[in-house]
């Protein structure tokens, strides 16, 4: 008998199905790739992508909210999600292509940290992988996510995080998705036991509120509240602060578009207010913001200075950032000037100013709620890079202020190497200056510590972790 006659006929193959394009997840993936490939910041990349999608009619408001959650949630949880994915693959993560890791991390976030049903989270992630990675790698994504879906977040953390008693810092790093060195640095700065550091790390992973500042002479918090109605409530600490109760894009608000209000964390407002209200001996007519970019604190200081008949000089080294400062101050009711200048080699004469704010460049570890990707980019050696600049800028600030005037040294980092170490070193080197107790300059704000400097905290004050030391120049 002919062998061909005995063979069973082949079943017809399934017809090829084109992957379904999900505009929300494709946009979120594009944002994550920009963060990874270009070192972009999500808060700068995502809004224009959302605007473009909404203008094309691809997105409703709930779609924008989901895309935002996917991007920020994935970035905040990256450390935890990487540890879980590593337990589900048979190779080191460094051998997995970064775009694949982005799709996997976004899928793990949907599975373990959202209300999206497991089958939908896996299915949507596989379809995304088919569109952006191809069918072959989509099968890998499917296999990994099906393993992840077999347990919940608590179950996975019990598997991948070392016990707290054996390695507290590594345990906290995995559970709360922070690099180990950042956990260690924050714990040193915060002091205390386990509860405090866990509260801080949890606060870093919460979505921050959008806070507006009413710019003096142009608007008031009351006027903003009246205009926004149920969309806003008053600030916690700053008399100029208004907190938005809903999401959305604050740049579309009339007051923000007109420059009468700006987007500014309440911690930044408190630092500027403290410098403006520090006790002063003698005249009070010339103020300096020595590191003014992008202009939020300068705009608040300019308004406060104008109310007192003083003028503000806003200086910023980078010309494009000086342009942002000029835009922020445009329309201010009082006199001001914006220049592009190196604060370590200033063009003004020594002793020219009565008040000086020096908000120095830093690691930004105090704003991890807003820029979650920064925790994965920063390295301990970055501290060494910032240290000489921070000290040089504080030296310059103390030279720029007159005898009897005050300097505010500020950072958006609680790291001791960027805060007290800088202030202590500079004061030891130069003499003729003394720390002022800054705590009374934060009226009604609790939990300010023993002083004389002030460290704000996300989990205590609901602000970024801003630091301020107020220094009076002596003879």
What secondary-structure arrangement, pairings included, does this model have?
Layout: H1 3-6, H2 23-38, H3 42-56, H4 61-76, H5 78-86, H6 98-113, H7 118-132, H8 135-148, H9 153-160, H10 168-176, H11 180-190, H12 194-204, E1 211-214, H13 221-228, E2 232-234, E3 241-244, H14 254-258, E4 261-263, H15 266-277, E5 286-289, H16 296-307, E6 311-316, H17 319-329, E7 336-340, E8 353-359, H18 374-377, H19 381-400, E9 401-411, H20 420-430, E10 433-436, E11 454-455, H21 458-461, E12 467-473
Parallel strand pairs: 5-6, 5-8, 6-7, 8-9
Antiparallel strand pairs: 1-3, 1-4, 2-3, 9-12, 10-12, 11-12
Helix pairs in contact: 2-3, 2-4, 2-6, 3-4, 4-6, 5-6, 6-7, 6-8, 7-8, 10-11, 11-12, 15-16, 19-20
């Amino acid at each position: 008998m002919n062998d061909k006659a005995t063979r069973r006929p082949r079943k017809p193959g399934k017809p090829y199905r084109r992957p379904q394009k999900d505009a929300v997840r494709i946009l979120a993936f594009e944002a994550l790739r920009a963060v990874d490939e270009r070192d972009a910041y999500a808060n700068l990349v995502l809004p224009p992508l959302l605007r473009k999608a909404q203008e094309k009619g691809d997105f409703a408001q709930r779609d924008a909210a989901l895309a935002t959650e996917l991007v920020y949630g994935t970035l905040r949880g990256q450390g935890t999600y990487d540890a879980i994915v590593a337990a589900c693959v048979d190779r080191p993560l460094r051998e997995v292509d970064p775009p694949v890791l982005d799709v996997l991390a976004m899928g793990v976030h949907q599975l373990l940290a959202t209300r999206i049903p497991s089958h939908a989270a896996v299915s949507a992630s596989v379809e995304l992988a088919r569109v952006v990675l191809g069918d072959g790698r989509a099968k890998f994504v499917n296999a990994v996510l099906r393993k992840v879906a077999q347990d919940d977040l608590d179950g996975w953390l019990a598997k991948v995080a070392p016990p707290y008693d054996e390695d507290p810092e590594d345990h906290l790093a995995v559970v709360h998705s922070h690099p180990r060195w950042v956990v260690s640095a924050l714990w040193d700065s915060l002091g205390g036991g386990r509860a405090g550091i866990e509260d801080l790390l949890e606060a870093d992973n919460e979505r921050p509120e959008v806070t507006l500042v009413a710019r003096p002479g142009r608007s008031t918090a009351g006027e903003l509240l009246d205009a926004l109605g149920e969309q806003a409530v008053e600030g916690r600490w700053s008399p100029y602060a208004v907190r938005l109760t809903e999401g959305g894009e604050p740049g579309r608000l009339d007051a923000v578009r007109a420059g009468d209000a700006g987007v500014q964390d309440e911690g930044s407002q408190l630092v500027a207010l403290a410098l403006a209200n520090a006790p002063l001996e003698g005249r009070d007519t010339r103020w300096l913001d020595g590191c003014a970019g992008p202009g939020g604190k300068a705009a608040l200081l300019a308004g406060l200075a104008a109310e007192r008949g003083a003028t503000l000089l806003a200086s910023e080294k980078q010309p494009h950032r000086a342009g942002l400062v000029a835009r922020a101050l445009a329309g201010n009711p009082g006199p001001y000037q914006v220049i592009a200048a190196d604060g370590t080699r200033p063009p003004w004469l020594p002793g020219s100013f009565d008040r000086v704010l020096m908000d120095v460049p830093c690691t930004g570890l105090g704003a991890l709620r807003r820029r979650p990707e920064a925790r994965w980019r920063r390295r301990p050696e970055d501290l060494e890079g910032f240290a000489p600049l921070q000290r040089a800028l504080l030296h310059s600030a103390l030279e720029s202020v007159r005898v009897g005037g005050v300097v505010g040294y500020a950072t958006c980092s609680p790291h001791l190497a960027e805060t007290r170490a800088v202030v202590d070193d500079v004061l030891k080197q130069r003499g003729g200056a003394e720390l002022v107790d800054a705590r009374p300059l934060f009226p009604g704000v609790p939990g300010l510590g023993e002083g004389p400097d002030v460290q704000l905290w996300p989990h205590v004050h609901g602000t970024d972790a801003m630091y301020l030391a107020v220094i009076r120049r002596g003879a």
